[in-house]
Every structure is written in structure tokens, then in C-alpha cells.
Design brief:
This protein is of the alpha+beta class. It folds into two domains: 187 residues, Fructose-1,6-Bisphosphatase, subunit A, domain 1 (Fructose-1,6-Bisphosphatase, Chain A, domain 1); 128 residues, D-Maltodextrin-Binding Protein, domain 2 (3-Layer(aba) Sandwich), CATH 3.40.190.80. Helices cover 27% and strands 25% of the residues. The chain is built from seven helices and 19 strands. An eight-stranded mixed β-sheet has the order 6-5-7-8-9-10-11-12, with helices on both faces. Strands 14-13-15-19-17 form a five-stranded mixed β-sheet, with helices on both faces. Helix 5 packs parallel to helix 6. The chain is globular and about 55 Å long. The termini are far apart. Bound molecules: 1,6-di-O-phosphono-alpha-D-fructofuranose. 1,6-di-O-phosphono-alpha-D-fructofuranose (AFP) binds next to strand 7. The site of 1,6-di-O-phosphono-alpha-D-fructofuranose has 12 residues, from strand 7.
Length: 338
């Protein structure tokens, strides 16, 4: 393990991730598990930076269990995380967007981890934002390592959640329950350095993120809410809103965490078998914990995301998260009882 303070390229002494985790008195097994996630993400970041030179662009011939075509980088990222996590003695089981079922690890491991190895796959080939999202829970003693019931824990039980955003710089945003913090990868030293401590999301916003092309499939109430945002000063909201959409939750949530906003992926009636798009275990729950620990709010259309009792490994939920007052306004429009 490296020493806690690093002289970074900007010429300042900064706290590295592992010193920060020691300051937060995070237990050693969890720190070791996080080291595996970090090592995998640094490998992924390197390949992302190399792009076509690393031969990581393009699609495979395969589909994952969700019926989505896998990209080479999805498969590579999943394999890197899987190999490093299964080699960690503290991991009892893993669940991944790219794995049909739970993969058992060490039967005495204290933790389980769910992850989306490469969120925003459609951005890979256009050099856009992509990321890795993860969610860590304590393993349940009376349940077998390969039993998916290990993962049927509410989001409130997460011991740690985070994402690594592979953008112009590589960022780790993480919470172990004591605030949400951001670390920037100093590529010259291979070290994540603390660059934003105790992030606080503004309670109000004038920015929203939603895939507008789906509006004909939303509920009437959701259409009404978005319509009033679009009407701006001329509508009943009385202020103008701006719209942004990255098509990678990790990029959109990072913007919300950085400067406020509301991010929505509502339920829709495009496909009766799939009333929502985002996955509870490795997209909605970790993002909800990061958002709440930064002072924001994260709901589906009926309840707090972190209170949802998971029923299945790859289940999907509607997501409305971000600046507290705006999320509450949206929930009023759609008739959610808060
Ligand atoms: P992948 O996990 O398959 O890369 O999908 C990304 C995603 O689940 C999420 O990150 C985005 O918010 C959303 O899909 C984008 O969906 P649209 O295709 O509707 O823009």
C-alpha cells in the first residue's frame, strides 16, 4: 500500500484514496476488496485511453442476458473485474450486468459485489463518456455463495458504492456511508487523489436529463412534468430549464453530482415485459446511495430507491434522482406519495 500523501502533477500534496479510507476507518477487508476494483478500473482506463490502438472498439457477436449486444470493451472490462475480484479472499460472490447468474467467490469472504463493468456501451465507439458502477454489501452467513438471494438486500444495506468515470480524466466517486467524495486518477503515478470532499448537490436546479425520444411511451403525468420544464418561463414553472443527455448514466449522474440537476429514466410502455430500463442492483442502488450521501434524493415513481426490496438479480426500476427540490416537484407531478 502506498503512503497516504502524494505530490501530484499540479505540484500539491494531496490525500490518496487509501489514506482517505484509513481516515474513514474503513475495515481492512473492504479496503482490500476496493483495491481489486481500483486495479481493474485502472486497467480499463488504460485500454479506454488507447482506444482503437488497444483493439477494444466494436461489437462482439454475443448478447448478454438482457438481450443487448456486447461490445468488446464490455467483455474485457467484465473479465478484468471478475478475475481480480474472484482472486480477492474477501469476496463471497459477484453479480455483473454481463453475467447471467451469480458467480461464487471465496465461501468465507465477508462481502458481495454487484457491478456494471462498462456503463454507457453505446459511447465506446464514439470516444464518449463511459464508466464502471459498483455496489458492495456484506455477505449473508446463512445463504450459499452462489445463491442470488445474497443480493436480495435493500440498497440501504450497501457498505460501499461508487463509480469510475472514464472521461477526459478518470474519476472515482465513492461513498462508504460518510459523505460522497471524488478522486482523480493521477496517471503519472497510478494513484487516485482526493479532489472533491463531501460533495453537496445543490437543492434547486435548472437542468434536466432524460431521453426525450421516449416521451410518447411515458405516463401522461410524466409527459406533463417534462412539458412544463420545456415551456420554461412561459409555463407554470416560471423559469427556463436546459437539457443534457449523455446516454451513459455514469456521465449524467456525474454532472448532477458536480453541479446539480435532475436525471430521469422513467417507466414506459415500449415493451410490456420491460417497463423500465435501468438495473436496480448495479445502476440505481449505487447511484442512489452516492446521491443521497451528497444531499440529493433518489426515487423510482413510488418510493425511495434504497428501500426497494430486490426480487431478481437483473431487475429494472424507474429512476428519478438529483437535486432534492426538483425531484420532489417531479414526484408531485406524477402523484407519488412522499
Ligand atoms: P448499457 O449499460 O448497456 O451501456 O446502457 C446504458 C444505460 O443503461 C444507461 O447508462 C443510460 O442512462 C441509458 O442506458 C441510456 O439509454 P438510451 O439508449 O435510452 O439513451
Amino acid at each position: 500500500m502506498q503512503s497516504g500523501f502524494v505530490f501530484c502533477t499540479a505540484g500539491k500534496f494531496m490525500i490518496n484514496l487509501f489514506q482517505h479510507l484509513r481516515d474513514e476507518t474503513v475495515e481492512a477487508p473492504l479496503v482490500q476488496l476496493l483495491e481489486s476494483v481500483i486495479n481493474a478500473s485502472k486497467e480499463i482506463a488504460f485500454r479506454v485511453r488507447q482506444g482503437a490502438l488497444a483493439g477494444v472498439l466494436g461489437s462482439t457477436q454475443d448478447e448478454n442476458i438482457q438481450g443487448e449486444t456486447q461490445k468488446h470493451l464490455d467483455v474485457i472490462s467484465n473479465q478484468l473485474l471478475k478475475d481480480l475480484l474472484l482472486a480477492c479472499p474477501h469476496v463471497r460472490a459477484i453479480a455483473s450486468e454481463e453475467e447471467d447468474t451469480v458467480v461464487a467467490g471465496n465461501t468465507t469472504g465477508e462481502f458481495i459485489i454487484a457491478f456494471d463493468p462498462l456503463d454507457g456501451s453505446s459511447n465506446i465507439d464514439i470516444n464518449g463518456q463511459i464508466g464502471t458502477i459498483f455496489s458492495i454489501y456484506r455477505a449473508q452467513q446463512n445463504i450459499a455463495a452462489n445463491d442470488e438471494a445474497q443480493f436480495h438486500q435493500q440498497g440501504t444495506q450497501q457498505a460501499c458504492a461508487g463509480y469510475v468515470l472514464y472521461g477526459p480524466s478518470t474519476l472515482l466517486v465513492i461513498t462508504t456511508g460518510k459523505g460522497t467524495h471524488a478522486f482523480t486518477l493521477d496517471a503519472t503515478q497510478g494513484t487516485f487523489l482526493l479532489t472533491a470532499k463531501n460533495i453537496q448537490i445543490p437543492v434547486d436546479t435548472k437542468e434536466f436529463a432524460i431521453n426525450m425520444s421516449n416521451q410518447r411511451f411515458w405516463s401522461e403525468n410524466m409527459r406533463g412534468y417534462i412539458n412544463d420544464l420545456v415551456l420554461g418561463e412561459s409555463g407554470q414553472r416560471g423559469k427556463n430549464f436546459n437539457m443534457r443527455w449523455n446516454a451513459a448514466m455514469v456521465g449524467d449522474v456525474h454532472r448532477v453530482i458536480s453541479r446539480g440537476g435532475i436525471f430521469l429514466y422513467p417507466s414506459d410502455n415500449r415493451n410490456p415485459k420491460q417497463p423500465a430500463k435501468l438495473r436496480l442492483l448495479y445502476e440505481a442502488n449505487p447511484m442512489a446511495l452516492l446521491i443521497e450521501n451528497a444531499g440529493g434524493k433518489a426515487w423510482n415513481e413510488h418510493q425511495r430507491i434504497l428501500d426497494i426490496q430486490p426480487q431478481a438479480l437483473h431487475e429494472r426500476v424507474a429512476v428519478i434522482l438529483g437535486s432534492e427540490n426538483e425531484v420532489e416537484t417531479c414526484l408531485k407531478y406524477i402523484g407519488a406519495k412522499q
